[in-house]
Amino acid sequence: MTIKDIALCCGVSVSTVSRVLNNHPNVSEAAREKVLCAIREHHFVPNGSARDLVKLESDAVGLVLRGIANSFFAELIPTMDQLILDAGYTPILHQIRSDMDELDAAAKLARAKRLKGLILLGGSNDYTQEQIAALDVPFVLCTYTNSFGNLTPEQYSSVTIDDRRTGCAAAKLLLERGHRRIAILLDSIRDRSVSELRWMGFREALEEAGVPFDPALLAETVSYDMAGAYSRTKKLLADGEAFTALFAVSDAMAIAAIRALHEAGRSVPEDCSVVSVDGIALTRYTIPSLTTFVQPQKEIVCTAVQTLIDLIEGRGPNRQIVLNAVPRFGQSVRQL
Amino acid sequence: MTIKDIALCCGVSVSTVSRVLNNHPNVSEAAREKVLCAIREHHFVPNGSARDLVKLESDAVGLVLRGIANSFFAELIPTMDQLILDAGYTPILHQIRSDMDELDAAAKLARAKRLKGLILLGGSNDYTQEQIAALDVPFVLCTYTNSFGNLTPEQYSSVTIDDRRTGCAAAKLLLERGHRRIAILLDSIRDRSVSELRWMGFREALEEAGVPFDPALLAETVSYDMAGAYSRTKKLLADGEAFTALFAVSDAMAIAAIRALHEAGRSVPEDCSVVSVDGIALTRYTIPSLTTFVQPQKEIVCTAVQTLIDLIEGRGPNRQIVLNAVPRFGQSVRQL
DNA sequence: TTGTATATTGGAAACGTTTCCAATTTATAT
DNA sequence: ATATAAATTGGAAACGTTTCCAATATACAA
Question: Which domains can be identified in chain B, with CATH numbers?
Answer without folding.
Answer: 3-46 (1.10.260.40), 60-163+296-326 (3.40.50.2300), 164-294 (3.40.50.2300)
